Amino acid sequence: MVVLGLVLAGVAALLHVYIFWLESVAWTTPRARATFGTTEDEARHTRAMAYNQGFYNLFLAIAVVVGIVLVAAGSTGAGATAALVGTGSMLAAALVLLLSDRTKASAAIKQGTVPLLAVVALVIGLLAG
């Protein structure tokens, strides 16, 4: 179950790297504007905020990847901690999005489902092991 949790955590990390790319690199492009529902003018005015926010997503993904590497290297405690911090933060951010703006429920579900599954699988696997 730990392996399943780490695979799901890796998928969540990849998703958050993509979100980083959309927010920090491609924010004003038609693809990013369509994804986040912003106009060209809104994207231009919120570019600095999105750039910063994108890096938060990247850092969460890095924490997860570090956790996966540590578990693979035999440091299960430290690795699981890093993976759970990363995926738990991703899940918490999705919950904040959902609770702060119900119109963003679809985005919150997309952002939070895989981290939720990763957290559940990791915790069950760690408790069973």
Automatic annotation (TrEMBL):
UniProt keyword Transmembrane helix present: yes
TM ranges: 6-27, 54-74, 80-100, 112-128
Keywords, alphabetical: Membrane, Transmembrane, Transmembrane helix
One protein family per Pfam: DUF1304
InterPro entries in the record: DUF1304 (IPR009732)
Entry keyword Nuclease: no
Protein name: Membrane protein
